[in-house]
Write a structure and sequence with these properties.
Radius of gyration: 18 Å
Helix content: 25-40%
Strand content: 15-25%
Bound molecules: ligand BJW
Order of helices and strands: EHHHHHHEHEEEEHEHEEH
Number of strands: 9
Strand order of the largest sheet: 3-2-1-7-8-9
Structural class: alpha/beta
CATH architecture of the largest domain: 3-Layer(aba) Sandwich
CATH superfamily of the largest domain: TPP-binding domain
Largest sheet: 6 strands, parallel
Distance between the termini: 9 Å
Shape: globular
Number of domains: 2
CATH topology of the largest domain: Rossmann fold
Amino acid sequence: MPDPDAKIVILTGAGISAESGIDTFRAEDGLWAQHRVEDVATPEGFARDPELVVNFYNARRAQLPEVEPNPAHRALAQLEQAHRGEVVLITQNVDDLHERGGSETVYHMHGTLNSALCAACDHRWPAPLIMAPGDPCPACNATAARPDIVWFGEMPYDMDALFAHLGEADIFAAIGTSGNVYPAAGFVAEARRAGAHTIEFNLEPSAVGNQFQEHRTGPASHTVSAWVEDVLKWG
Ligand code: BJW
C-alpha cells in the first residue's frame, strides 16, 4: 500500500483547463497559432506595443467569468483537503480555475490574469477587467502598469520555494503540460533526483515524457479524478 503521508507535488499546465474551454498554447488552433509569442509574451513585445499586449491579456481575463472549473480542478482541491500528507499545487496557468475549483494554496509560477504589476516599484493590485498601459500604480503613481504575467526571459515566481518542495517530493505529477517551457519542464528531473515517483497525465507523451515512470493517458477530467480516488484510498 502506498504511503498515506506521501508529500505530493503537482504541476499543472494549459491542458488541465482545456476541458473548461480555455485554449492551450501549442495545439494546432492554440494561442500561439493565433498570436506571435514574440509579440505578446516577451518584455520586448510589451515595450514595442503595450496596447496589443494588454489587450491580449484583457481578452483572456474577460473569458474567465465565462468558464468553470472542471472535474480535474475539483479533484485536486479534494486531494488537498483529504490527503494526510502535504499537497503542493504549482500551476503554469494564469487563469483562476484552481482557486474556483476549491484549491486553497496555489503557486502561480507564470503569474495571474487577476493581478496587475507596477514595472516601476513591483507593487501588485487586483487587475481591473480592462487594463490600460497608462494605468497609474496605486502605490507609487508611476504609469507603469503591466499584466502580472511571467514572459519569456523573465524569472518565474517563487522558484526557491518550488525547488525546495521538489527536493522533498515523494510523488511528482505533471498534468496537461507539453514540457516545452523551462524551468517547469525540468521539474520532473529535479523530483526524480529527490527520489520521487513521477507520473505524467496527458493526452500524449510530452517533450519530457520519457523521464516519467508512469503515464496516465487521456483527458485530465477523467484521469486525474480517477487517480485522486486511488490516492485517497491509501489513508
Ligand atoms: C491535455 C488536455 C486534456 C490538452 N487533458 N492533457 C533553451 C533551452 C532551455 C530553456 C530556454 C532556452 N531558451 C530560452 C529558454 C528559457 C525559456 C524557455 O523555456 N524557452 C523554451 C521555449 C525553450 N523560459 C523562460 O524564459 C522562463 N524563464 C526563465 O527560464 O528564467 C530563467 C531561469 C533560469 C533558471 C531557473 C529559473 C529560471 C519563463 C517562461 C515564461 C512562460 N510564459 C508563458 C506565457 C505567459 C503566460 C500566458 O500568457 O498565459 O507561459 S509561455 C506559455 O507556455 C505559458 C505556459 O504557462 C507555458 C507552458 O505551456 P503548457 O501549459 O505546457 O501548454 P501547452 O499548450 O504547451 O501544452 C498543453 C498540453 O496539455 C499538451 O501537452 C496537450 O497534449 C495537453 N492537453 N488537453 C490532459 N484535456
